[in-house]
Design a protein that fits this description.
Helix content: 40-55%
Largest sheet: 4 strands, antiparallel
CATH architecture: 2-Layer Sandwich
Strand order of the largest sheet: 2-3-1-4
Distance between the termini: 10 Å
Low-confidence stretches: none
Shape: globular
Number of helices: 4
Structural class: alpha+beta
Strand content: 25-35%
Radius of gyration: 14 Å
Mean pLDDT: 92
Order of helices and strands: EHEEHHEH
Number of strands: 4
Number of domains: 1
CATH class: Alpha Beta
CATH topology: Alpha-Beta Plaits
Length: 110
Amino acid sequence: MIVDHRTYTAYPGKLAAFLKVYEEKGLPLQLKYLQNMVGWYQSMDIGPLNQVVHMWAYDDLADRAAKRAKLNADPDWQVYLQEATPFLMSMENKILNPTPFFDLKKMVGK
């Protein structure tokens, strides 16, 4: 199992607006298509500001590609992207592999 780790940095003063649009329009779609949310977190007053980090678990890169293709094919996702991305200054994505002693499947209920 792998984890897709994403860090989004919002423009100053725009994080709350981004989170509102995401919660209303993006989250339901991601839960429908991606299914295995590991977590959604926002930065506070320590370290980089105006950031959210979210993580999604997949069986492997092929599972990730298939699920994200379905998400991207949904017209409602395209509407969400048009509304949400203007709030974001940058996006960083990385794929994480668990260490040999950590069983992610037990953590996400698979």
